[in-house]
Structures are given as C-alpha cells and as structure tokens.
Design goal:
81 residues, 3 helices
C-alpha cells in the first residue's frame, strides 16, 4: 500500500487534550481540523507581525520631523484633544 505524502504524524503531547476538548465542545469536527486551524492562526499572526515590522522600518527610514513639537503634543493629549 502506497503511503500518502500529505499525511503526517505528530506528537501533540498535552496539547492533544486541549484539541480534544475543542472537538467535544463542538468547535471542530476532529483533532486534525483543530490542528489545521491552529496552524492557519500561526500563519496569520506571522503575516500581521511582518506587516508591523515593515511599517516600523518604513517609519524609521522616513527620518525625523524637525517641526514636531512634543510638548504641544503631550499637552493636547493631556487635555483630551
């Protein structure tokens, strides 16, 4: 019998109980579905973090605004403006 390449065996350790609880609660049909959802979430989190890193790099590359008055800004924020 040929083995399917898309099948994988993983050891979930104590996380298996969490996954099975989610299945019991009806949030997922089976443990594999719960694992796939977790992996999709990790991928999405990585995309979000990459986006923030890119924004930070863009901000750092844009230089310093010499006209910005920090004291006025803090005063406006304190006044609720």
């Amino acid at each position: 019998m040929a083995q399917r390449e898309d099948l994988a065996s993983v050891n979930l350790g104590s996380a298996k109980a969490i996954g099975q609880c989610l299945v019991t609660e009806g949030r997922f049909e089976n443990l594999s579905e719960a694992c796939r959802a977790g992996l999709r979430r990790l991928a999405e989190d990585a995309r979000i973090i990459d986006g923030f890193v890119a924004l930070g790099e863009e901000g750092m590359a844009s230089g310093i605004d010499e006209t910005f008055d920090i004291d006025s800004f803090v005063g406006a924020m304190s006044a609720g403006k």
